[in-house]
Amino acid sequence: MFIRQHPNAEDKLVWENSSNEGKKNQEMGSSNGAGVTEDSTTVSDDTHDTDIDMADIEAEAIDSPSRFQEGEKVLAFHSQQLYEAKVQKAEFQMRELRYFVHYLGWNKNWDEWVGVDRLMKHTEENVQKQQELKKKQDTDKNGKAARGSQMKTKGSTGGRGRKRKSDIPQKDKDGPPPEKLVNIQIPPQLKKQLIDDSEFVNHLGKLIRLPHSPNVDEILEKYRDYRLKKDGEIPDSVGEIFSGLKCYFNKALPAMLLYKNEREQFQELIRDDISPSSVYGAEHLLRLFVKLPEILFYASIEDETLTELKQKLQDFLRFLQKNQSAFFLST
In terms of C-beta distances under 8 Å and separation of at least 24 residues, what long-range contacts does 27-31 make, across chains too? Predict the structure, then answer.
């Protein structure tokens, strides 16, 4: 099984409501000698995005003395874009006023808590800025797509008739409707991990220490050992899924999993035959799961296969959650 990457899958993936972040699982599993826990728990959904400097627009949002009222229509930043949203709640959280917003026209699963720096008043002037920003990003994406089409890609087929689909399709202008995206849920603790990761890199200006230990290759191998110990065998389908996940991570990392100020670090570390999965770790692997719902939409996977794939990916997320302290450096 192999899934096909869509390079612009980041545009409209929105972080899910993180109001359940405080919920803790009642049961914690036992650990093996490598510090890997062997239990599973339940999960819930999210997303975040990368790359494009909008300091001039964001500065205006941050400096604005105004506050937003419940029920107010606003413009909200997400994925370097501005979207129409409605403020549903306003609360002080960790000494900061935060707003729970619903993105207009989107499924409520994408609702999320945001800070004042993510919101702007819904005025004629700001709507104009929203349109100008979208036009600029559409232009940038067209340029990237043209350059990407010139890149050399692998088109070989794997064993058992499996196709390796490396051709990159063009995304629909507005992207797939949210209700047609596969619902890969992210556990509340990992949701918070994503938010902390973003704050660590984007607001504190810090970088995750690399090479990471354990790296993505090692984490996937630990999961394989965990399933082998639990089930007594590893089905071929599971092996294919996680071989595809590793390959997909290596392709997706430079395209959609890095923040702007992480790119220089990538250029310094990833050269020649060095694969990203041998250098990067759980923080960046978790970002891939934010992109997977839209990625899978473009992969043309049969429903039965997609159901099995989702179950395996959910189980892997539970494995990451149970071993969060061992796998994530910023825990």
Answer: 28/322, 29/322
**% helix / strand / coil in the chain, to the nearest 5?**
45, 10, 45
Alpha carbon separation from 299 to 94, 237, 294 (Å, rounded): 41, 17, 9
DSSP string covering 253-285: HHHHS--GGGHHHHHHH--TT--GGGT--HHHH
Structure token pair of residue 173: 């202008």
| Entry pTM | 0.51
CA separation for the pair 266, 256 (Å, rounded) = 13
Query: Chain centroid to CA 122: how far?
Result: 27
**CA distance linking residue 259 with residue 207, whole number of Å:** 10
Band (pLDDT 50/70/90 cuts) for residue 146 is low
Q: Tell whether omega for the bond before 211 is within 30 degrees of 0, i.e. cis.
A: yes
User: What residue has token string 């993505």?
Assistant: 216
Q: Is 54 exposed, middle or buried (0-12, 13-18, 19+ CB in 10 A)?
A: middle
Residue of 144, 115, 173 whose CA lies nearest to 50: 144
Q: Is the model more confident about 176 or about 47? A: 176
